Amino acid sequence: MGRRRVKEKHIPMSLSMPYALIQRVDSQLSYKSSRSKWVQNAIIQKLDENIDLSLITSMRLMKELYFRNDCDDFMKRSIKLIIFPQMKDEDIEKLR
User: Are 29 and 38 in contact (CB under 8 A)?
Assistant: First the structure.
């Protein structure tokens, strides 16, 4: 009988993170806990997170919409009048 096959293959990867962040993660782990498993769960939680748009200000939402590729010219001009009234286009692009 052959070796049991893993359903989902794990791929090793190297990440660069600030030392202080690693310390914060490590402070959440017990002696026998897996850092990789903790990071996997954090990523899954972030990806599955439902964003509560009511917590984001209207100004922030308009700014995000302004910089989206699918925002049409009329909408861009309307948003610009509200949140960037005196700014030049090249100055607005620097905010990206």
Answer: yes
Distance of CA 79 to CAs 49, 64, 71, 82, Å?
A: 28, 10, 10, 5
Which of 42, 66, 64 minimizes the C-alpha distance to 53?
Answer: 64
Give domain limits for the chain.
55-93
- What is the per-residue pLDDT across 18-51, written as a single tens digit (0 to 9) for each? 999 999 999 988 888 999 999 999 999 888 888 8
Q: Which strand (E) or helix (H) includes residue 23?
A: helix 19-27
Locate 95 and state its tokens.
């905010």
Do residues 65 and 76 lie in contact, with contact meaning Cβ atoms separated by under 8 Å? no
